[in-house]
Amino acid sequence: MALTLGAILYEGFELLDMFGPLEMFTALPPDQLKVVMVAEKSGPVTAGSMSNAPCPSVIADYDFESAPPLDIILLPGGVGTIPALENDNLLNFLKTRAVDAQITASVCSGSAILARAGLLDGRRATSNKMFFSLASSQSDKVEWAERARWVDAGDFVTSSGVSAGIDMALAIIARLFGQSVADQIAEGAEYSWHRNADEDPFVDQLNKLSNSL
Amino acid sequence: MALTLGAILYEGFELLDMFGPLEMFTALPPDQLKVVMVAEKSGPVTAGSMSNAPCPSVIADYDFESAPPLDIILLPGGVGTIPALENDNLLNFLKTRAVDAQITASVCSGSAILARAGLLDGRRATSNKMFFSLASSQSDKVEWAERARWVDAGDFVTSSGVSAGIDMALAIIARLFGQSVADQIAEGAEYSWHRNADEDPFVDQLNKLSNSL
After folding, report:
1. Whole-prediction pTM value?
2. Taking CA atoms, what residue in A is nearest to B200?
3. Does the CA dihedral B41-B43-B44-B48 come out positive or negative?
4. How many CA atoms lie within 13 A of A23 on its CB side?
5. Residues of chain B contacting A44 with CB distance shorter than 8 Å
């Protein structure tokens, strides 16, 4: 039976946080994995950018109540993370659904939301470099890894900023479906996969805000 | 005045072909560049995958008639390329609008559509590795480059498969807004930019179809 991956949309999510991983996950045949788009309310959800540029809208097929059982949860980051930290419906949805999911995965500042929900307590996790302190300030019970492309803590997998989500997605695919499947998907997308979770070329950017953009 | 980038959606477009470049372009402040989503008809347009997996839908803000003047046109590839080659409305839109655009850029098999429209004749261009022959069979008046991450032919810029579109987008940003702006955007997205257009790690995959996915 196919696994179901729920991609969680919220206003101001970061485009590549979502669609980098989904490019890799949708390369799997639908009898192995099915992607569903979920948000607090079904219908269009607009992405965001740190530059405040207008961004595309993506359609959520399910709201939190109607979403099917999820084997994998994919939570992006983005400028919308900050208001999302105060969204009890989102936090409760994640708390409830993560219990039954095989893997709950976040990209970028998405781990700040998971940490706020208390879901990363007692686990090792990472976040994006530009606002690392946003995540780490949500819980001091998390073993925050500053130098990590992604961290696989078993039921929770967290990645560093934006494009690191692609590498994490391939690692999850390798774990669930085999290394050769992940290799083939990366190759098909002509993507030079960063295969080492601990190799982090961007660690020097820690908490460096982008001021001139 | 801000440049306007028109991202062209069609049924079965490839997710990362579109949202890799748009991640980079939407990092520019909106007083420098504005992204608009355009399709034959406004409203939801569904992405596609070679695996036939169900994919997300994205909203086109404008149809071909209502689209504003476009300084940059971004055309993705994907499984939808094959029916798109027969879509005269799309081909005519591209032919008409490319004349006034500063840059018309394609990702992956999007260059097959540009070639079919005759827009690449007399120019150097590239395409994705997995279906290179799909593009090259559209016109023998194009100087098809098999070994290229992307090809900058001035008014037309074409990239190789899927993730190569991100590198091409950064190169276009560097050309239009300066190298340091592009560097900063890549760094903010924690993206290891392939900066050399001629360095192509995937050339050995030429026309190798993915059979087992």
Report:
1. 0.96
2. A190
3. positive
4. 31
5. 59
- Amino acid of residue B147: R
Kindly determine whether residue B162 and residue A54, on different chains, have CB atoms separated by under 8 Å.
Answer: no
At B58, list the tokens. 């994205």
> Contact, A122 vs A141, CB < 8 A?
yes
Residues of B in contact with A185 (CB under 8 A): 213
CATH architecture of the domain with residue range B3-205: 3-Layer(aba) Sandwich (3.40)
Q: A190 — contact with chain B (CB < 8 Å)?
A: yes
- Domain A3-198 -> CATH class: alpha beta
Domain assignments of chain B as residue spans, ordered by start: 3-205
- Is the minimum CB–CB distance between A188 and chain B shorter than 8 Å? yes
In chain B, residues 120-159 whose CB comes closer than 8 Å to chain A: 128-130
Complex ipTM more than 0.90, yes or no: yes
Q: Do A184 and B57 touch (CB under 8 A)?
A: no
For every residue of A128-155, DSSP letters joined together read -STTHHHHHTT-TTSEE-SS-SEEE-SS
What pLDDT, in 10s, does the model give residues B71-130?
Answer: 999 999 999 999 999 999 999 999 999 999 999 999 999 999 999 999 999 999 999 988
Give residue-wise pLDDT tens across range A94-129: 999 999 999 999 999 999 999 999 999 999 999 998
Nearest Cα of chain B lies from the Cα of A74 at a distance, in angstroms, of 14
